[in-house]
Amino acid sequence: MPRWYIHLDAAKLASACWETSGRAPDQADEFSPTADPSARAAFERAGPTPQQLAAIKRAHPNYCALGVIGPSAKPQNGRGRNWRAARERCVQRPPRRSKWRQQASVVALATAAVLVSTQTALAAPAVNPATHQRLTSNSMVQRPSGGYEIATSGETRVAQAKPPHDPAPPRDRSAAAELIAALVLLLLTLLGFATRETRAIATSNFVVTDKDGKEYQVVKGRTVPEELKQGLANDRYKEQRVRYFRTLYVGLDNRWSTSKIQPLLWTYAVLFGLSSLLIAKWLGTPQGWTAQVKAGLQDEYLILLGGPFAAAVLAKFITTEKIRNETLPKTVAPEDSGGLKDGLVQVISDDAGNTDLVDLQYFAFNLLALAYFLSVFVFHLQEGFPHLPALLVGLTGVAGATYVSKKAAERALPVLTSVVPGKAAPGGEVDLWGANLVVEAPASPAPPGWKPKVTVAGVTADELDVVNDAPATDHLKVRIPDAPAGATKIVAFTAVGTQAGAGLDFEVTAPTLKGVGELAAASCADLRVALEDVESEIRGLQEELAGASPGEKPSIVRQIRSDQAQADRIRQQQRASNCLPAPPQWHLAAEDSQVLAVHAALLPSAKVLYFSGDQHDEEPTRPLDATRLWNPETESVEHVDSPGDDADLFCCGHSLLGDGSVLVVGGTSAFDHEAPKPHSEQHHFTGLKSTHVYDWRTNSWAQAEDMRDGRWYPTIVTLSDGRALAMSGHNAGGEGHENSFLEFYNPDTRTWTPRPDDEAFITSPPLEETGYFKLDTVWIGPIPIPLNHEFHPMVYYPRLHLLPNGEIFSSTALQADDGSNHIRLTRTINPVDGALTVVGPPPFTASYMWPTPPWIPDPQGVGRMANVYARQAFVSVMLPLKPPNFTPKILICGEEQAKIFDCSRPDAGWQNAGSPRPYPMRAYANSVILPNGTVLIIGGAASEHGPFGAPTPSSLQEGRLELGDTGGTDDDAILSPEVYHPDTNTWETLAPDPNGIARIYHSVALLLPDGRVWLAGSNHDAQRNVGGTRVDGGGDARELRIQTLSPSYLFAWDTDGKNVVPAAKPRITEAPEDISYNEEFIISTPDAGEIATVALIRCASTTHGFSSDQRYVELIRDRSKEAPASLDVRAPETSLLAPPGYYMLFLVNQAGTPSIAHFVRLGTS
Length: 1165
Description:
Elements: E1 3-6, E2 16-19, H1 25-31, H2 37-46, H3 50-59, H4 99-122, E3 132-134, E4 139-142, E5 148-151, E6 156-158, H5 174-194, E7 196-202, E8 206-209, E9 215-218, E10 237-243, H6 258-283, H7 287-295, H8 299-324, H9 340-347, H10 357-379, H11 390-409, E11 415-420, E12 423-424, E13 429-435, E14 453-456, E15 459-466, E16 475-479, E17 486-493, E18 504-508, H12 524-546, H13 553-576, E19 585-590, E20 599-602, E21 608-611, E22 627-631, E23 636-639, E24 653-656, E25 662-665, E26 668-670, E27 686-687, E28 691-695, E29 700-704, E30 715-718, E31 724-727, E32 741-746, E33 751-753, E34 762-763, E35 773-780, E36 783-791, E37 800-802, E38 808-814, E39 825-829, E40 836-840, E41 846-848, E42 855-857, E43 875-878, E44 889-893, E45 899-902, E46 910-912, E47 926-929, E48 935-938, H14 953-957, E49 978-981, E50 986-989, E51 1003-1007, E52 1013-1017, E53 1025-1026, E54 1029-1030, E55 1042-1046, E56 1051-1053, E57 1060-1062, E58 1074-1075, E59 1080-1084, E60 1091-1098, E61 1101-1103, E62 1112-1114, E63 1116-1117, E64 1126-1130, E65 1141-1149, E66 1158-1162
Parallel strand pairs: 1-4, 12-18, 58-66
Antiparallel strand pairs: 1-2, 3-6, 4-5, 7-10, 8-9, 11-13, 13-16, 14-15, 14-17, 15-16, 17-18, 19-55, 20-21, 20-61, 21-22, 22-23, 24-25, 25-28, 26-27, 28-29, 30-31, 31-32, 32-33, 32-34, 35-36, 37-38, 38-39, 39-40, 41-42, 43-44, 44-45, 45-46, 47-48, 48-49, 49-50, 51-52, 52-55, 53-54, 56-57, 59-64, ...
Helix pairs in contact: 5-6, 6-7, 6-8, 6-10, 8-11, 10-11, 12-13
């Protein structure tokens, strides 16, 4: 059967074909290329026309014609497509027998055409080398030079190796396939995470009965089945929305599961690989899929998929059985177990949060094998899945086996990290910190013998309180049992039959005193109750004694004496058990400070800088060399140069900058008698413009840029960005009595700016003179003197505190011309634009009446000859900032009733701080925040009546107001310090100063690094000198003695309760010198188990009873990371909480005794 082929070459397949089994002569003439020379030439140029092909189909139903398929070309002489560009093989079709089969062939042909055109568009076919072909029939072949010729049957021809118009090399679509596969997996994962369902999570362990009467145990933290929720109280469960995909990697304990993560990673990896191969095949790069189909799934991938799945199933089975058998308590973490970082930490850690070596190596080896797979596969997709090294596969297998083995051998032993305090008497309470300290029963009622126990010297301690309600906790309070006194250990058990963890050293103190008997092992609370009972009985006997007959009195007296002896023994027992604080100790450190300490600052060198300019001596030729250093270690005075003869630093303002330098602003330009009226009438000195900086590293002064105007009695506040704000103070000119402009000091450039944007100077708009008040009537004895007179005696040193929100709180009530009728209110200041915000009423509403009674309520709220809180003679201190909220509270003290302002509750206004004090006032006192978080109030006077005498109507009418303008007298000095306890809102009065030194006007007090309080300065009777002699005649007005006060926390009673001994201080063996905000750092200490608080106290500067630098920030501890000899703490989160600068780092033990401070620099200057 002769066949005619029209083809390009053997490799490229013919573009059209037909076969004949005999044809009619007319057909032969019509289609034979040799029948007509012109037809042959046309045929050679362009191939068969579409009409010719159609005619073939019509005339020869037994022949097939695929036509010309391939890229289009311009028609040649109007005759169809360029058939020489065809690419499809000629496929012989069976004879056409029916019309529907013919139509099906056409459809199949069209489909094949689309597929082939897509294939050729994405990748070019392979190029075969030239080969020799022996023709089996007459054929039409293409000449190398172009055109076509007839090749007869039997002739050998060389097929063309490369057709004309050869297409571009095939494009590799591997990267596109991988990207598509990754995006599809990511999309599906995100959809899974976005889809949530609501579940009922049990809040405790309980037993529930279903509708059929069958009981089920529900475990806290697990899901309550929907069919069991019916009839349950709402407090038994809580509704939570849970992500569908969350269970793929999170266990029932709400932690990222180590066993689930490994198979999940390999499942995603294999899905990604197979998806990439399939998509690449569809895109025209099938080599990878073909290679993978031929190779099959290699053994190593079966191991890497099956191994982790098997390990997960085995680990689940082992853990479930141990929990059921009560040999392994499983803690439940909060539902929100953290983000990716926290989750990865959980993968390689145990339930206590400690890094687990077995979990780490299991995860690390799988991660390494996965990284190898991805790195090879991504760059060699056409080769299919890569073969993994046997080393990696073996390591992952061994790691999985080790993980399962650990699960089989695992026991949740209790881990004690600290016991606070490290010693206590029987009945005392201690805190245990660690992991797995107590186990909650899985159901109610609890299984027999489940009760957790803690032993002390073999005796079981009573559980007081589980701080968190997880099945296993890290914090447990226990009461010490009646264990024998002496050194012992505390050991925590999880359940009966569970091995105990390692114990920690502990000391039981139970001194037995003669006559105390049953009180030997009593707690502090028991001793207090016993003492109250005995004292109550004594009072009852004394009342009985008063009405007793002579015969009854002797026996009553004997009973009273017996009870008094018993009370003494109880007090002795209280001291021996450290239930009563030891008394503080006063020490006269130096007889001569050489200069009056009006201003003082604690330097990072641990020394105290103090200075005073003219030392309150109005002699025109007064010396100004009044700067000294106090060395606490040697208790000696060291001379330091002063800024110069033109810099009188008396009554200046100051604060510490970020590098520990002391910024000193303003001072005295002229005394009141040298100033022009009306200033002299108002008893104001004029202020300096100068600025000086003391460098503690070189002990030298440097002068910075002058301010816009002078300031005398200004307040300086260091801001969160390291700049310093200057406010108030009496200037050297102008009609006003106050410098109402805000100025900002930049320590980097040592220049002043009005505000950050360098715009015009601003006030605290619309701030007026702070001390304005109106006096309608003054009483001279019983005689009222009508005045209707305004006074402007500015308020010196406004009490300003930087709040954690960046605003400045003013304890000094500020008045403004803002429609409030000049009423002074408690306000905050925005340091950016100086805007005032009213946050509450003033702490005073009174008028003055001379001489008694001192105060009359004033409903208008205007300070008319206002009390101490209306001026500058009161103490103001921001109480310790403590986690978690670091809520700022401001304590003021000076009147009989101290007050507190809670900045988180401004609507409450000023509230009473404890009960009224035993003094009518404590003016010109000092405050010191102590390391144990209490506030020491020391010094001050019970009145302000100076030796000037009572005012007269004429002096008042002329505006000369001496009343209340002095600092009190030595006779009215308060010698007993007081301590305010913020936690209990109570006051404690300490023993008075045995030296009887009055610390009133111009006195200072600072906290030292060893926990003592440094005291210096004061003007006797608030007087000044002239040429070294008091202006009122006789002696020196300066107090030059230096004292230190050692608070009670530095001492303890001996075991007999009779003698005071130094308390054991915590020790800091190593800590960083510099820390950044929110930085986690380690403090090395052998007393880690005893530490209750870690605190930062800013190095302070103080004058006139106020320090804007004072700041106490308690640090957050991560107890889960602590070891017996170290503490893991975190620095303050931002500079708003603690401005940059030097701080004293204190460790405070459970007894309240602080360590010697370690100086640390926080942030940058």
